[in-house]
Amino acid sequence: MPINLEKERLEILKRYRKLLRTAKPFLKDDDAKQIKKAFLISAEAHKEMRRKSGEPYIYHPLAVAQICVEEIGLGTTSIVSALLHDVVEDTDTTLVDIEKDFGSKIASIIDGLTKISGTFEYGTSQQAENFRKMLLTLSDDIRVILIKLADRLHNMRTLSSMAKEKQLKIASETIYLYAPLAHRLGLNAIKTELEDLGLKYTEPEAFKEIANKLTVNKRNRESFVDHFIRPIKKSLDELHLNYTIKGRPKSIYSIYNKIKSSNTPFDKIYDLFAVRVVIDVPLEREKADCWEVYSIVTDHYRPNPSRLKDWVSTPKSNGYESLHTTVMSLPYGNDKEGRWVEVQIRTKRMDEIAEKGVAAHFKYKGTDTRTSQAFESWLSQVREALETNDKSQSAVELVDDIKNSLYHEEVFVFTPKGKLVVLQVGSTALDFAFDIHSEVGAKCIGAKVGGKLVPLSHKLSNGDQIEILTSSKQKPSEDWLRIVTTTKAKARIKDFIKEENKSHVIKGRDMIEHRLKILGYPSLTLEITNQLRAYYNAKDANDLFYRFGKGYVAIEQLKHWKSDKEMHERKQAEKAIQVPIVDNKSFTKEMKRVQHDRKDADILLIGEDMDKVDYTLAKCCNPISGDDVFGFVTINEGIKIHRTNCPNSPELLSRHGDRVIKAQWASQIAMSFVVDLVIRGIDRVGLVNDVTRVISNELKVNITALNIGVKDGLFEGRISLMIQDTDHLVALVGELERVAGVIEVAREE
């Protein structure tokens, strides 16, 4: 299709003018000139570039800038940075050029947004390194992360034009890292959309099924909401409050998670939506008026006392404020009984913070110290974790530590003097001690909660008042890492342990060097160190030396490593072709050399390439012929083939995307695969006989294992079978579902 350059030019101008119109209310002095200058530089830099969809590349920075203004609420500095965010990475323009034209602040933001290039060691991931680099900018300018989230949101909205394997990697990374980060920064609307779009590409069938069902039920849902809110509206009108009230459906991702976690079918999920009441009142009346609205709601409907959540009195650490209650509705329509409905009550200010997150939080900063303190508390924890992090901890480990703090709810506890401390749910007395001060944590031997002595591992509850007991003889130990939950406590404990263990590391290295000389190796090279790390499953060189120095691994074990190494080298030498297990790039290069002119030389063909590449089928998901799969290059076990919907795939794709390779089944593959099926139904005499007869006699399928249990008239069985491919599996499941009494047949995940 021919490109109409004039039409594209007009469309670019149209999008640029829309950006200026949206930003106009807060533009000052020469802001418009700065935005225009950034737009012209970006347009010129990207003029020869196009996106995968075929559109001009400039559409992307314009869209990112639009999201920053319209959906996050950022200002001129962010607009300029968003327009220029890919210029340094993709063109000849340098950070020096940016600083000269726009100043050091914008240059610093763009530096944070520019991806890291180069090679990475084993155990690291380019995605994790990029994520770590963004987090490091928290101490300077949080707008880096907000712009990155806008960038990721637009990429997810336009992901359909990418290749399938790229879609899977980007979507998995989004669910694993970026959606939790948006949640912690209070960007609820963006977090929800990122999760839904992530699910759309990682589990397309489940996404489509839930979306269709929500569409079908939309009219009934709207009718129910109208009926439910009618009496509430009448009472609010009598108070002459300025308010809005509406029903909001749950996100597709949260419905999917509920179906998966509680094994509940869609039709049995009753809290598919929440009713939100937003009142517009002055700041000094917010708390009292929210509770008055709560009183009105509970006058009309019976509340569930255990489901009241008061984030008005004590905001979440991301600044979120709202009153949540769950009430029982009256029977309506085809419902013979009422259903539980969540009602959210908040003010207009709280609603803006809930939807636009940290950007709105800074807009209102100074008007509400509780919100500021809560958010700043979490921010300072992340900064501390980053500042204390040293090079011995990989980016993956650091990101994992911080990610663990992203989604958690909070627990509110107090010091003996009544000072409020906010920790994540699951925190222990030891977490509390480290939150007070690092030295208090390091010397902690126990605690008193409500005057009662409790151990370090005691989990804290809302309202607990904690007194920490210390001893000068106490020292942190590795066992403490299993007790604590917070990122701050983990970082501090690791610091203390590292300091304590330096002598063991030095001793272990000396021991290994001495023994290697006896075994015929003149020195401890980096290559040998990496081989030993892999052999003993050590996370890094210091961990390896520490294990030997501490005596966890006997020095005599090195002779076993030597013999295993020599045996492995003999086996490798026997292979005609050896593909080095390094990464996707190395694999692709070697395969193209081996396959010569084959068009799909960069794809691992399962069933044909066994003589060229060392690969196995992953046991965590048991892929079979016909499944959508990918290859994952492991450190010392060759290539593992995983299903794209494997429970481990989001982590593998997001943390180690550089080690993922394309894979597909050969067109003519004659293999049998073990598949585990779960069969549920109503028990009757002869049921097991009928099931096994269908499998063995009618379909000629071999059963390798069978385990069926019966309880209260219901049966559940797990059967392991030898299957040829997905078509064979579908046919088998269809036949089993026809057996009288069988309700559900599913492949076990």
Automatic annotation (TrEMBL):
It holds the Pfam family ACT_4. Residues 409-470 form the TGS domain. PROSITE patterns: TGS. Gene3D superfamilies: 3.10.20.30, 3.30.70.260, Beta Polymerase, domain 2, Hypothetical protein af1432. Belongs to the relA/spoT family. In eubacteria ppGpp (guanosine 3'-diphosphate 5'-diphosphate) is a mediator of the stringent response that coordinates a variety of cellular activities in response to changes in nutritional abundance. This is Bifunctional (P)ppGpp synthetase/guanosine-3',5'-bis(Diphosphate) 3'-pyrophosphohydrolase. It comes from Aquirufa beregesia.
